[in-house]
Design a protein that fits this description.
This protein has 23 helices and 28 strands. With 699 residues, the chain is an alpha+beta fold. It is extended. It starts with a helix and ends with a strand. A hairpin with a 2-residue loop joins strand 11 and strand 12. InterPro entries: Beta-prop_Vps41, Clathrin_H-chain/VPS_repeat, TPR-like_helical_dom_sf, Vps41/Vps8, WD40/YVTN_repeat-like_dom_sf, WD40_repeat_dom_sf, Znf_RING, Znf_RING_Vps41. Keywords: Metal-binding, Protein transport, Transport, Zinc, Zinc-finger. It holds the Pfam family zf-RING_Vps41.
Length: 699
């Protein structure tokens, strides 16, 4: 059975493309396959009359009044015995929980999914003749019988309108009505050679009275020279109308894809389909359904269900190979995969190839440069550095790059440094005099371990760093305290090492020359501003302003960064009238924003300071307002007698300071007895912060 179905599928595709291949070399737009499994079993005993598609399942109606629910592979999941006569059409809501079924007996049945996935049915409409088509969208249901199309509003339980058919000469059983919802308020009606567009609109409250809350506005009908069978309106793409058309009796059906234009239509593709039993079928026996979720088209005939879908990239390549267009295939594949070749992710594979392939197969200098370019992005990639060392070992042209020696001789250098007691530093340096690149590797490793152990060679290392490892020269100059600055400055100036020269000049105290070199050699205003900030010297800012005053880009940089260190007014007043300065407005806005920010910060700090002062003042006031215990154990700090008299009836006067020192009033010296001392004499003499004489006891 499976082999027979496979052969039939192949014959379907071959017969579909046969005539097209004879006529032209144009690639088909769709590919086709039969829906098998349970569908094959059903159509051996029964005939398909209709079908509807949901994203989760399919519903198939038959001539014997059965409705089958199928999965997307065609396997049967449920079966309903709906009617003893043919099922005309099935319609599902968007959730797949409700299903409308109309049949030859004139009934419109509503199936609702209940608990445990069971379905219960009810009659929605009957008694007005044979219902041949039903479609619903949202709260609106449309169905068609021999007289016309009805639209029903489920929410209000009202029939909105009746759209009569135009050409009553066409037999409705031969040319049934086709319904399609474009959106929730637009219904497309295709009947014979006529296509109508109906728009459902809300009725104004003043017009309602006893009329339904909605009404239907029918657009001007369009005429088609061919009699269509089924219309579908696609979404998410240019509006395409899919039509079955009848050429002649017993002919193979053709599936046309038509692109509507402003004034006409363009035929995109036309495929002739060889379905089972097409010789016995008529136009009314075919149905077209569309699954939006999967972008699949289902062509339904009494003895066959064919699935059509858009061809993908793999299908396109297979077609090109079949046509022997190998160059086009190579171009497509290169576009798909070539961009992965530039990622540099297969570093280990690259290293293996360098070791395995003979050196005469490639240009060594080109490969060395490529590795160097990658190391600029990933300077610590050990695999690339080892590979670079291997390339250099076979080509002395790259010996000036010393990084690979760290990996070639790293273990040897570590062994020498770990055994200084057996092989001295002086001995190693002398032995490597003829190999300065290796000498540099050894001394660099020694300096990394201890900045002071090889101080006698620091002057020599300046030249070695400049020759073989400039990237580490500036860190060396910063970390070394034994490097002769004059010698280093001479070497850097000879080699025109600007950044190193700037550092040495600033370290030697010649900041103005360093700033001048930054501005004249590097032309980097940001670096000059950063240097002036580090030095924090007003004269440097003045030199920077004078140098920049006739250079608009420098003025822009200064305006953007000077505000936190120098008053911008000093710079703005010196700008010549009429000078064009790039981004001047943005720079001035930034200055004002920075100024406003400073004002806000100061106001915020002031509020915090005032709040803290007030809080501390209140706390001090509460503390000073507390009582002080005075008893027989306390003494006068002046006469050293008990502060309280032995005779409680005798009057006395005592002064207690906040420092807790107590005095008899008469023991305190003062200009008069009426104006006692305001400060504790003991605390004032010791500078401990005198207390105030605000507590006084009298009796």
């Amino acid at each position: 059975m499976a082999e027979a179905e496979e052969q039939e599928t192949e014959s379907l595709e071959e017969s579909t493309d046969e005539s097209e291949e004879e006529e032209s070399e144009e690639e088909p737009k769709l590919k086709y396959e039969r829906l098998s499994n349970g569908v094959t079993e059903i159509l051996q005993k029964d005939a398909a009359s209709c079908m509807t598609v949901h994203d989760k399942f399919l519903a198939l109606g038959t001539h014997y009044g059965k409705v089958y629910l199928l999965d997307v592979q065609g396997n049967i999941t449920q079966k309903f015995d709906v009617s003893p006569v043919k099922i005309n059409q099935i319609s599902l809501d968007e959730s797949g929980e409700h299903m409308g079924v109309c049949s030859e007996d004139g009934k419109l049945l509503l199936f609702e999914r209940s608990w445990m996935s069971r379905w219960k049915s009810s009659v929605l409409h009957e008694g007005e003749g044979n219902i041949r088509s039903v479609k619903w969208r949202g709260h609106l249901i449309a169905w068609a019988n021999n007289m016309g199309v009805k639209i029903f509003d489920i929410t209000s339980k009202q029939r909105i309108t009746n759209v009569p058919r135009d050409d009553i000469s066409l037999r409705p059983d031969m040319y049934p009505c086709s319904l399609c919802w474009k959106d929730s308020v637009t219904l497309i009606i295709g009947w014979g050679t006529s296509v109508k567009i109906c728009s459902v609109k809300e009725r104004h409250a003043s017009e309602m009275r006893d009329l339904p809350s909605r009404y239907v506005e029918i657009g001007k009908p369009s005429r088609n020279v061919r009699r269509q069978k089924r219309i579908h309106f696609s979404k998410g793409k240019p509006k395409i109308m899919f039509v079955f058309r009848e050429r002649e009796y017993c002919a193979r059906p053709r599936l046309d894809i038509i692109q509507p234009l402003s004034e006409t239509c363009e035929e995109i593709s036309s495929d002739a389909l060889t379905v089972r039993g097409f010789q016995e079928n008529e136009c009314r026996d075919y149905h077209l359904e569309y699954s939006e979720g999967e972008s699949l088209f289902y062509i339904v005939s009494p003895r066959d269900v064919v699935v059509a879908k858009e061809r993908d990239q793999d299908d396109h390549i297979d077609w090109l190979l079949e046509k022997k267009k190998y160059e086009v295939v190579l171009i497509l594949l290169s576009l798909k995969y070539l961009h992965t070749c530039n990622r540099g992710e297969k570093v280990s594979g690259f290293a293996s190839l360098i070791r395995e392939w003979p050196g005469d197969l490639y240009n060594n200098s080109v490969i060395v440069q490529a590795v160097r370019d990658h190391l600029k992005k990933d300077s610590q990639n050990r695999t690339l550095l080892k590979t670079l060392a291997e390339l250099f070992s076979s080509d002395t042209a790259g010996v000036s790059d010393c990084r690979f020696f760290f990996f070639l001789f790293q273990k040897a250098v570590d062994m020498l440094l770990d055994n200084e007691d057996k092989i001295s530093i002086k001995k190693v340096v002398e032995e490597l005099e003829d190999r300065p690149e290796l000498q540099h590797v050894y001394l660099h490793k020694l300096f990394k371990r201890d900045h002071h152990k090889g101080q006698r060679y620091h002057e020599k290392q300046i030249s070695l760093y400049a020759e073989y490892d400039r990237s580490n020269l500036l860190p060396f100059l910063r970390d070394s305290t034994h490097c002769p600055l004059e010698k280093a400055l001479e070497i850097c100036q000879q080699r025109n090492f600007v950044e190193e020269t700037v550092y040495l000049l600033s370290r030697m105290g010649n900041s103005r020359s360093a700033l001048k070199m930054i501005m004249e050699e590097l032309h980097d205003v940001d670096k000059a501003i950063e240097f002036a900030k580090e030095q924090d010297d007003g004269e440097l800012w003045e030199d920077l302003i004078l140098y920049s005053i006739d250079k608009p880009p420098f003025i822009t940089g200064l305006l953007n960064n000077i505000g936190t260190h120098v008053d911008p007014i000093l710079l703005i007043h010196r700008i010549k009238e009429g000078m064009e300065i790039p981004n001047l407005r943005d720079s001035l806005v930034k200055i004002l924003q920075d100024y406003n920010l400073q004002i806000l910060l100061r106001e915020g700090c002031k509020k915090i300071l005032v709040a803290d002062s007030l809080s501390l003042l209140k706390k001090m006031h509460r503390t000073q307002m507390k009582g002080v215990l005075v008893d027989e154990e306390n003494i006068c700090e002046s006469c050293l007698s008990p502060i309280l008299p032995s005779d409680a009836a005798k009057p006395f006067s005592v002064l207690v300071f906040h420092c807790r020192h107590m005095f008899h009033k008469e023991c305190l010296p003062g200009p008069s007895t009426n104006s006692p001392a305001q400060f504790c004499g003991i605390c004032s003499a010791k500078h401990r912060g005198p207390g105030s004489a605000i507590l006084e006891m009298k009796k």
